[in-house]
Amino acid sequence: MSDTLFNKPLELHTTNIPGLVWLDLPVNGDNRGWFQEKWQRAKMVEKGLPDFGPIQNNMSFNEKAGVTRGVHAEPWDKYVSVGTGRIFGAWVDLREGESFGQVFTLEVDPSKAVYVPRGVGNAFQVLEDQTLYSYLVNDHWSADGDYAFLNLADSVSDITWPINLKDAVLSDKDKVHPELSGVTPIKARKILVTGANGQLGKALQIEFPDAEFVDRSTFDISDTSTWGDRNWRQYSTIINAAAYTKVDAAETPEGKVDAWKANATAVKELALLANENNLTLIHVSSDYVFDGTQETHTEDESFSPLGVYGQTKAAGDITVATVPKHYIVRTSWVVGDGNNFVRTMEKLAKDGVDPAVVDDQFGRPSFTEDIAKGIKHLLESGVPFGTYNLSNDGPVVSWRDLAKAVFEATGNDPKRVGAQTTAEFIAKRLKSDSTVSPRPQQSSLRLEKIKKEGFSPRSWEKALNTYLTEQSD
Hints:
Layout: E1 11-14, E2 21-24, E3 28-30, E4 33-35, H1 41-47, E5 56-62, E6 68-73, E7 78-84, E8 87-93, E9 103-108, E10 112-116, E11 120-126, E12 131-137, E13 148-149, H2 172-175, E14 190-194, H3 199-207, E15 212-213, E16 235-240, H4 253-277, E17 280-286, H5 308-320, E18 326-331, E19 334-335, H6 341-351, E20 356-358, E21 362-363, E22 366-367, H7 368-381, E23 386-389, E24 397-398, H8 399-409, E25 418-420, H9 422-431, H10 448-452, H11 460-472
Parallel strand pairs: 14-15, 14-16, 16-17, 17-18, 18-23, 19-22, 20-25
Antiparallel strand pairs: 1-2, 2-10, 3-4, 5-12, 6-11, 6-13, 7-10, 7-12, 8-9, 8-11, 21-24
């Protein structure tokens, strides 16, 4: 190896193909030869390389210059390097999207490496005899994988090979691959959304129309035997919108078991799955993980749940936080397409019923339209992983205030909404032999963190008016 390749610093370089990057690799040499760290996860991730989780190392020894292989796009990411010799590398984006057909070329010797995202076609031509070509991948070969192939002589890509392809050594298969116009683009890794039929699940279907949605009948998060034999390496993200949400029923012997199974044990299994397959896990949390003694809640407040439901949600949060790529989205007073407080108040107003509503619990609604948009922002903008509060903005109000706003927005007299304390509410429920869970008095979530990362939810008043108008259409 030439002395000019020694002692270069580790450096990452972007290219015209999204996600395709190459690195200058330090080479330490002396009169005995040289030593090099071909793959050093911590250092390279710090420089900006994706933490792609390689699970297999492949090598291709090429006896003579002129050997040419490709263009192959596989359903995995790869990290390409050279042990000895030199290659001319060519990469063509064969992924579905605006960058389809983009080309990048680079001469690679032992002082360089290239990270090739899933779906980007990879090809190389050997420039020196005895060249050892190596690549790490983060999935095993599978017969049912999503593959694409491009002809090395494709006229649109118009790759200028150093050695004319007429004089190169090609396999028979590589000679007959299609031109770019005949290539079926490789689709992006899939997003799996649980809880498809819930209030949030329905809103997520609007924001993520191409995701795979599952409900309890097809994918019960509490029963791993229903998860099927999916190739999880072909997924990028799990959005867990499924949960046990019967706050009062969770206090019963049967409800306790179901709540812990869905909100804690199942979430642990999802976290293990995400860790094993390098997935992003997005998990929806609740203000019930707090006791409500603080006037407002920040993301780093210590857990202090009052009831079983809150305890199980806190346990799930703790587990999700062990996943390197995770977002915990903490909400309060969820309102969407389904049974909820706003819809109940709307019906009571219409039916001429004058309710008595708790006036000593405070918070802000979280409309599922805004939660779904916030989740999409977190996922697509690449903000730092962690926990984010996500409710609607606007003034903090009591449940009674919210009920009065519903009455007023639907053309009814808000004075019809009476008041009762939490203690009075609980006493009435207990008289009817109902089980009641304790509630946090203060549920207001601070929103500064998610706003700082570029997402500002609507005020709940504006969201409420839109919601009620849409419901009446």
